Amino acid sequence: MESRPQILLTRRWAKPVMKALNESYEVTAPTGDVPFARTEILKAQDGIEAFCPTAFDPVPADLIAALPESVRLIASFGVGIDHIDLDAAARRGLAVTNTPDVLTDDTADTAIGLMLATCRRFWEREKTLRDGLWAGPTPGGALGTKMTGKTLGIVGLGRIGHAVARRARAFDMPVVYYSRRRDPDAEVSLGLVWCETLAELLGRADIVSLHCPLTEATHHLIDRAALAAMKSTAFLVNTGRGALVDEAALVEALRDGAIAGAGLDVYEFEPRLAPGLAELENTTLLPHIGSATRETREAMAWRVKENLDAYLAGQEPKDRVV
Predict the structure, then answer these.
(1) CB count in 10 Å sphere of residue 300
(2) Annotated catalytic residue, options 288, 298, 306, 320
(3) Domain check: are 22 and 119 in the same one?
């Protein structure tokens, strides 16, 4: 019987995909919901050809160097690639793939949900109700901010930025954007307005939504100076990467009223929060669930399998980034 390629998963995926993987490959994966720790990854025997982490699993240079010599591919589960040291992978001659496209809608939905929940103070008011402190509706109590008609500022006009802009039309929101590349077609089709600088966008927007990749250039893109450039009535939403925001500076700005509130799904030091962030009532905090639907997580897993199938069959994978 011909031997099958060996692959290593850091976490278990959706059952239908795991069944298909086990039919095609010799799979090493956790038996339960607890992901492999680094020590367990390094126990992998030589013969593993593909290493399959998720976007929640750091893959630094020293881990890449310690992977079995047989590894040829890092097939990541997730669109972001900042958790992988791509230079180290390239030096070792490893291919790297990700899973774009399939999580666009869910992440855009999450961004809109965070905007609405934060502007309208949903979490704060739900907590009052659950704690038995609600005394009934009053005309002037616990007022939120109307989202319809507010100016939305999108930072990073990639797939998800486009999807958020489309959804914003349902709320009659004027949309301004700042991105590495200007998109005249989107300006026409979606009615977007280009901002030449981030500072211009921050000064115009009532809600700032982050959708750019995390790079050296965008690390702490939203720092104290950027927060100070925002309106005191504005809200910050981040479904991109946690380290786009200086969280210590954000806590300070939220506490001092420099901005009105923030809705976050990603964090600078996940799974830890910056000190003081969890205690602030002018925030909506989600535990990195932007793509967490059954449909999308399964689609992400199938996309990884497509890349595995292609590469290990000697073909060019669809989503190669290195």
Answers:
(1) 27
(2) 288
(3) no
Domain contains 1: no
Tell me if residue 96 falls in helix, strand or coil: strand
Residues 88, 293: Cα–Cα separation, whole Å:
32
Q: How far is the C-alpha of 200 from the C-alpha of 209, rounded, in Å? A: 14
- Considering its fold, how many domains does the chain have in total? 2
The answer to whether the pTM exceeds 0.85 is: yes
5 phi and psi angles, rounded to 5 deg: -60, 145
In a shared domain, residues 306 and 255: no
Question: 271 preceded by cis ω (within 30°)?
Answer: yes
**74 and 184 assigned to the same domain:** no
Residue 2's pLDDT is 67
Instruction: Tell me the percentage of the chain whose pLDDT exceeds 90.
Output: 95
From the candidates 126, 270, 279, 295, give the one annotated as an active-site residue. Answer: 270
Q: What is the CATH number of the domain that holds 307?
A: 3.40.50.720
Active site residue 288: yes
**Does the annotation mark 270 as catalytic?**
yes
